[in-house]
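Reviewers asked in the last cycle whether our approach scales beyond single polypeptides. To address this, we selected a multi-component target totalling 1050 residues and predicted its structure end to end. The input consisted of the following lines:
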Amino acid sequence: MGLLSDPNRRKALINLLTRLNTPICLVCYLAGIAWFMGLAFEPFTLRTYMSENAMGSTMVEERFPAGERALAMGREFAVHKKKANGMPVDWLAKAMQARGLEVFTQSFSRTLPFTDEIKERYMVKGTNVYGILRAPRAPRTEALVFSAPCSPGSNDNQAVGLLLGLAQYFRSQIYWAKDVIFLVNEHDLIGMQAWLEGYHHTNITGMDWTPLQGRAGSIQAALSLELSSDVITSLDLVLEGLNGQLPNLDLANLFSAFCQKIGVLCTIQGKLPRSDWDTAEGYTHAVQTMTLMVLKQASGRPWGDHGLFLRYHIEAATIRGINSFRQYKTDATTIGRLLEGMFRKLNNLLERLHQSYFFYLMPSLSRFVSIGYYMPAFGLLAVILLLRALDLWVQLGTPPPVTEDGPAEFQQPSGPGMLSVLTPVVISHLTGMALYTLPVRSQETAVEHFPVSETEAVVLTAIAIYTAGLALPHNTHKLLSGEGTEQGWKVLKLVALLYLAVLLGCVALINFSLGFILAVTLVPIGAFVTPHVPKALSAVVMVMLSPGFTLLYCIFIYQELQEAPVSLIEGWMIFLSVISQGILDHTLYGSLVYPLLALLIYPCWLLFWNILFWK
Amino acid sequence: MAAPLTVVLIVAATIRAILFRSSLAELISERVEVVSPLNAWKRVVEGLALLDLGVSPYSGDVFHETPLIIYLFHFLVDYAEIVFMIADGITAVALYFAVQIYNKNVFRKQKYALEADRYPHDCLELMRSPKEMYYIPLKVAMFYLLNPFTILSCVAKSTCGLNNAVLALFILCTIKGSALLSAIFLALATYQSIYPLTLFAPALLFLLQRLYIPVNLCRTSFWLFTLQYAVMYLGSLCVIVCLSFFLLGSWDFMPSVYGFILSVPDLTPNIGLFWYFFAEMFEHFRLFFICVFQINVFFYTIPLSIKLKEHPVFLTFIQMAIIAIFKSYPTVGDIALYMAFLPVWSHLYRFLRNIFLVWCVLLACSALFPVLWHLWIYAGSANSNFYYAISLLFNVGQILLVSDYFYAYLRREHHLSNGLYLKRKDGTEATLVLK
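The resulting structure, written as structure tokens, was:
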């Protein structure tokens, strides 16, 4: 406490921090970025290891024999699916019944706020079919879920076939201590959402569904399988769930352990692990894998059908079969054995997966970075905001004798100061509210008056409001009685800096990737903006670093890393569809990224914009 | 000055009315930061239901409020929202008048001291001007009514708001010099939550000071008045407790309210220090540590009363802060009450050392509470350690805040008696170092 109580040392420290503020901030920023890039460097990461005892030491034997028969079932399923033009409910129920499962169905319907142009759906009606394999060895208080989607076209038929094959095989085994639920969900995530809400008796998103007739115990873990061809070359593990939530790392460990045991090529983010970490290519590869994970996590959307399980505290992952042009092929029997092994290990669990990490980034499937290692990267960025705030605080305190009381200055600086701070804060938040509510609300009006489709109307309204917000500072000043003072903008900037710091801190805790990406772009703005910097240039820089442009950059980087680079026009089209998907994700599944950006981040950015145009 | 106060009251009532009508109200009333097992509205409703059924409301270990509260809401349950809004209003108005009178006293004392030339000459810049003091009562009311903590507490219908109103009335009565009313309200506050017991000392000191009775243990007049005040206090406490007994017809409430407060059986997480500690502890140490933790709240009264015997109102502030930090089931409503007093000490600003740091900590922690709660309870990815770390930090922030004000107050007093610009023996400028 010497530092806090000794006035001389305090003064020295504060002098140091204010005098060297800019260089320290610069160093912190560069160090933050460097730290983040260093996370992918293999010597700095940890090898994954199985923490859960129940899954680690016990050996299981995989004996699933019937891959070919499963594929045949898949083909039969495809025929019936085509005939029924959707979920072949009766056939599937019969098929599951024939395998000795308790079969139930659930129908659901949902009207989207506007047409989803990518998946071409507006009024969604569907049925989920699920069968429960009751555990012979335990009091049926716990369950595992194995799900496969019933998707349109020729996709995922093999997955359903394998699901039926595994159901038949599992039924004849005696070691099950947990119920296994085999779920075929229609309309991917919407069906999954309906089923999960029905299972847990909640209704978060206002969807219509019929109550579930049969339930098993509390779900401990879930695997979702997506498989579109008879043979595959590699299996891809998808972890990123709703709002950037990740399943326990042990689930990923389990997957990679079995891939190694059985000898299947496994990837994460579609990237194979490489062993040459000390070469430039090896390092770049790891960075790319990690950046892809960061981008996917930051998007806050579920990247597979497992994504919604995580909200219910159920560890879940999607396993996606990929058929590319590699020599090495894996057949359905092997995949079946892999899944069998994973389920048997999950069956051995004595408690929920909790031993391993929940906060991690993976530069490759066998390496991970935990929260303790990646948080400093964010911390170094966030500390810049605090340093700037401290600098402002000292500036506000020293030159004129301070008459106001300390704490009051935070919440309500008295007199005209309060008005000049409160007005921009309120106005920018109102703009944020408009950005959040108006696009969906006003789509009908927009469609009437402009030659656009509903989806376009929503997206374009959002962009229009976003752009209109830029005109605000001039109008804000008309509302103010007097002109802004030097003190005024400093107080406003202090408020904005602390606001941004707290906001980013909270976001980074929930979803590190989103917090970090926003910090990378917003922290420089917060650090340099004053009314005295060259207006035009700074305005351009600010716009280029605004949340909307950040999204655009993320799309280009993502496409680049997916090895599908796009031109500017294509990028723009993707940008538009991403916005509509963001709004849809929010209304359908409760993803928080869109409201976060609209209601908090964007107003915060507008505050800095206001400071730039302070008169 | 009445007009701005009315405006503030109207604004505050509007905000509360809007929030009561919104969907947020339900969410807020479930937050562990805002309601504790003692003052949750849900539990009061449960108690009422039991009472209506003719069962003792204390059977079932859900309801832990005092009998007077349940009989109050027995009649007013339909108007609960208005009751809580009025309680907040009463608190604010009472604090407003209390601070107004206190400031007048302070200014008068300063004038006499100046006329008697008791201050060193370089201390003129430490003198307080009426202009600067004019808005303080209004700021106090505003700090209480518009503080997000108070608003949350009110919207959650936490009975903490009523306790705060009683405490505010106690402060008003004390500062007005009415010993009887002060004792009655103090007894009522004690009856509500035990801890205000420690406010007996500052109230007594204030009343003694007001009657020009020196605090001298050898003087009979001191003991006479102390006895008088103690009798009034204990008498009214006795009356209230007996009244509760006659209302309820049993002593059920004693273990259920006071036993519950003192022995801390409910370890629901909150912003306090108890829950984690006692959840982790081996059972056979429990009694010992409960004693340690509870004595902690009461213990500071003695040294603080000795140190601050000339400044009872500041002592009241410090005591309330200590109660809010160390009590067994703290909520943000308790914090809001002592934070309302911060504008009264705005003249200490120049001596505060860590105010920026402390406010950053408090601000960040307040935002992080719900986030970490979400991660722990809903997402399941964090655990109780994360939440407790933040509540620990929050309390450290509060302690730093209070000790900073304490230091600043003492330092100002020191300067007022020794001169603002201290010189060392060799003539160089001296600095005060706290070690």
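The longest strand of chain A covers residues 102-116. We regard this as preliminary and will revisit it once experimental data from Aim 1 are available.
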